[in-house]
Amino acid sequence: MNLYEHTIIARQDVSPSQLKQIKEKYSKIVENNDGDIVKLENWGLMSLSYLIKKNKKGNYIHFKIKADGKIITELEKNEKIDKNLLRYLTVKVKKFDLSTEYFKKNEEKEISS
After folding, report:
1. Predicted confidence (pLDDT) per residue in 83-106, tens digit
2. In whole angstroms, how far apart are CA 8 and each of 106, 108, 112, 113?
3. Domains along the sequence of the chain with CATH
4. Which residues pair with 85 in a beta bridge?
5. What is the pLDDT of residues 43-81, one digit of tens each?
6. Is the Cβ–Cβ distance between 104 and 43 less than 8 Å?
7. Which residues of 63-79 are buried (b: 16+ CB within 10 A; e: fewer)?
């Protein structure tokens, strides 16, 4: 089993219910192919560096996946045809960093400090 960090960017105008459906759809693909989602993070709506398909912002969703390479191929095949997604990226890693919350809201960081 390999370790992967997989990030997808959904369009800025998707509703919260559509965002939940996107998370469930890709989680099921991983689980149905004997993969394991170690952590799922919703990074929220963030500005893009440049326009992608006429969008200035995107909803970021980040998966930490323990799976075989075949599952990543299946995920990316489904993401290519999904009209709600702008981009996706998969990176193979040696180990997961499960303790750091990189995109935690500023208010939450100040409260915990």
Report:
1. 999 999 999 989 877 777 766 665
2. 22, 24, 28, 30
3. 2-95 (3.30.70.60)
4. 10
5. 889 999 999 889 999 999 999 999 888 898 999 899 999
6. no
7. bbbebeeebbebbeeeb
